[in-house]
Amino acid sequence: MPNLARPAALALVLAFAATGCGADVPSQEGTGEGARASGGHYPVTVENCGEKKTFERAPRRVVTNDVGITEIMFALGLEDHMAGYVMPDDKGDLTKVPWKDGYRKTEWLSKERITKELVLDARADLVFAGWNYGFNEGEGFTPAALRSVGVDSYLLSESCRNGRGKARGVMAPLDALYTDLRNLGKVFDVEDRAEALVSSFREQVAEARAKAPKGVDRPRVFLYDSGEDKPFTSGAFAGPHDIITKAGGDHVMKDLEDSWTTVGWETVVARDPEVIVINDYGDTTAEQKRRFLMSYEPLANVSAVKNDRIVVLDYVDLVESPRNPAAVSSLAADLRRLGS
């Protein structure tokens, strides 16, 4: 079972994740007011979750929430524009990831939840978070609340609400990643770097798809995040949908027009997944989740359980992050192995 991305799958990403990405990438000295004076990059306008946002200069003290969001900034080489990041300490060994230098150079502000007080203490000028990735009306931490104290925000595109209550998702998951890379590339005047990443990620996904199972050989795949009474899983607008389908699987919850959501076990049983992907994070280990699935009586006749076809991917592989393309490659290899 895979853990993080395989070394081969990371090779393409690492070439662009380093701070320079080659001599053609604009230096960070060319951002902000200096860029405006020397040729007029600013002001710039991007569309974020249906809202047009204009930036008069590159933000200088960004606070990010959660691992995938933080690594988007690191992949773009924007550590010098960050005041710090917030995330729990259950995200694996951060010293062995492609963006380890970003973690080394950037302050870990909190291992608890992000708050307005934390943001103000960090003197942030922008918060990069998302609905259910930090922003939450119940806790009073919203873009509107930040705006009231003079702090701007950028919403993770995977988390965009689609107008059906609090349901999330307005575009395909990998498109959300590419959209955020391009938007932030424009906001921070590193568009060449963003395009290089998008190009390398598209190539990596295309290579995985070319080798992936097709047609009747595509196994039915269910994503298990957590929950025993009811499973928390991925709908069509969360990262696992694109990761599963582009890796050669048939996502059994592809008809759910939401990102991360809860379903009933009876639905899982009726759709009879042939492979289950476990989301590895939190206090419950992947092995504990696997033991639960294998011993839970209602699942006894589900094909994935009967044949012990269970794969593990890390949380950061599955939420929107620059590790998504490597996760496609990793899962595609597993589906080929399990189908052989």
Automatic annotation (TrEMBL):
Domain Fe/B12 periplasmic-binding residue range list: 61-340
InterPro entries to which the protein is assigned, alphabetical: ABC_Transporter_SBP, ABC_transptr_periplasmic_BD
Top-rank lineage group of the source organism: Bacteria
Ligase as UniProt keyword: no
Keyword annotations from UniProtKB, A to Z: Signal
Alphabetized Pfam families for the sequence: Peripla_BP_2 (PF01497)
Presence of the UniProt keyword Nucleus in the record: no
PROSITE patterns to which the protein is assigned, alphabetical: FE_B12_PBP (PS50983), PROKAR_LIPOPROTEIN (PS51257)
Signal sequence region: 1-23
Family: Belongs to the bacterial solute-binding protein 8 family.
Protein name stated in the entry: Iron complex transport system substrate-binding protein
Species assigned in the record: Streptomyces prasinopilosus
Organism phylogeny: Bacteria, Bacillati, Actinomycetota, Actinomycetes, Kitasatosporales
